[in-house]
Amino acid sequence: MYKVPKSKKFLYLGVVSERAAKKYGDTPITLDHDMDAFPGTGRTFTVSEFAALVASTADRLWAAGVRPSEHVAVHKTSSFDITVLACAVARVGAVPAMLSPHLDAETVGKLLERLERPTLLTDEAKLTGSLGELPLGELTARVVTVTGSHPDAVVLAGLAGAPVRRPVLLDPDQPALMTHTSGTTGVPKLVVHSARSLGARGNWQDKVVSFIRKRETVAMHVSYVHSRMYLGLAVLQTRGMPMVFMNDASPAHVADILVKHRPGVLETHPNSFLEWEEMLSDPRRPISHVKYFNSTFDAIHPSTMHKFLHASDRRSPVFLQVYGQSECGPLAGRTYRRRNALKADGRCQGYPTPFMTKYRLVSRGGQRPTREHPGYIDVATAGRALTYYGEQERFDQQVVGEWWRGGDVGYRTKWGCLHLLDREVDVIPGIDSTLEVEDAVLHRLDELTELVVVPGPDRKPVPVVCTRGDKPLDQERWRTAVADQPALGEPVQRRLSDLPRTATAKIRRLELARQLAEELTPAH
């Protein structure tokens, strides 16, 4: 089997916009909100203006004392300005460590401690809110606030007019960006990316975008702290594609934005697509102009793809599903169309990209990996991260030569297609795939906005359901829908907003199982 070559393309976040602006400087970037740190910029600006914001912010950070190779934790209220700050940190040669705005203070404190007294780039809302309970003087080298003021922080706005400095480009194999894992299994791990690994991922995604033959407006709702955001920004800017970024993911708001801008490309998290199904009944038909749908963070339900594809008026719309991981970037993918989305096996993740990614299945118990006995999914890619910062031993446990063992289990079809059944930690005895059960039942019950099967206190499967408008679950319809499924416990109904989530809207299954155990276990 071929060996995946090292990437010869490097992605430097601090200069990508400046370089893109030379050819596509007038390309518009539109937001659905004002940026906290740059309120005077407005909601529509160009790639050239974005590049200028990055450069001027980098000059201010240098004036604040930030230097090459230092760690800068970026943790502020959710807003697109997070991307400007991250690119500015990279421009001075420092390493942005992206911490989700949704992390609790205890987790932020642990990550700051792991980063060994980084600079903290934050805002007044965080400093007077969740961060107020942390000993920031001990955990950080300095604190810089991008809004308001604080007695223990340098005010970024006060450094306006700082001397202009040239960008610093580190060696392509040095740390260039840190993002964190979803945290579905505990305190998130800090994933260290290099300019080379980011370049490999960007090359993969650029090839995908190259199939879009005309200049389409791209609308995205993606976590600002996820590596996907920075690769998306880089590829779209260098391709001159108009961009619309949404901060508010509520279906009614998203529908308004889509009606106003009529994008040809729409990307978000799988769970967001599921929640957005309710906008498909909007008489303004907000999805009608979308030709390309993209979901890159997790498996998506076939019924959801089917509904969105049929809501488009474009000829032969395409739904791209990509299987990837924070540590490796995109690994395998496939496209779906109107004719086959509903017939699709929701566990099918598609095929690796020749000479860019590959995978293998490894036995978990001595048996050949099959649907009934899924094996470890090992992957090889030039986009693999360098390490988990401060947890090298933990990272090394998942490295097997050139292969990376990410914790998912699945099997290969006779056509060479990769099927993902579950994460190993989510496997429940007696169920081949919890995800497969969820796919089947969600397709049958349109009133569900979410279904998650997790182990109960006795390790037996408990379905947690959310309904549209939080209406009571119809028990008779439920029994009919699950009649041919593995034996499930009684459904537990929750409001969608009460489910524990990651930064990319995934359900934190282990945390949900823990919560259920507390509720369902009798007190002694």
From TrEMBL:
PROSITE patterns for this protein: AMP_BINDING
SUPFAM superfamilies in alphabetical order: Acetyl-CoA synthetase-like
A Pfam family of this chain: AMP-binding
UniProt domain AMP-dependent synthetase/ligase: residue ranges: 18-389
Entries under Gene3D superfamilies matching the protein: N-terminal domain of ligase-like
Protein name in UniProt: AMP-binding protein
Organism: Streptomyces ziwulingensis
